[in-house]
Amino acid sequence: MGPAGALLLNAVLATYLNVYYTDVLNLTPMWGGMFLTIFPIVSKIIGAITFSFVGLEVFTGLILAAILLFVDVEKRIGKEQEEIKARREKA
Q: For the residues of the chain, what is the DSSP string, one character each?
């Protein structure tokens, strides 16, 4: 029900928003009626640009966190530090 409910709520609110734009703000004659066509498209483009900066960073952070689960750096760090110390003492 979650995604379907969100889509239904979006449709209902978009209808009320359209009525608000046309009846209250009287935006129908603006730009020959093209404002009500262009404004949602521009809003989606801005949303996509915002997602590309914010959402992409979140996804890459989650992917890196998942990769770190499979990399066992903490398990080998002691042994590797001992090897580095031994190499330095030889040199």
A: -HHHHHHHHHHHHHHHHHHIIIIIS--TTGGGGTHHHHHHHHHHHHHHHHHHHHHHHHHHHHHHHHHHHH--HHHHHHHHHHHHHHHHHH-
Residue 55 C-beta-side C-alpha neighbours within 13 Å: 6
Q: Which residues contact 53 (CB under 8 A, 6 or more apart)?
A: none
pTM of full prediction above 0.70: no
The tens digit of pLDDT for each residue in 18-74 reads 888 888 888 888 777 788 888 889 988 998 898 888 888 888 999 998 898 888 777
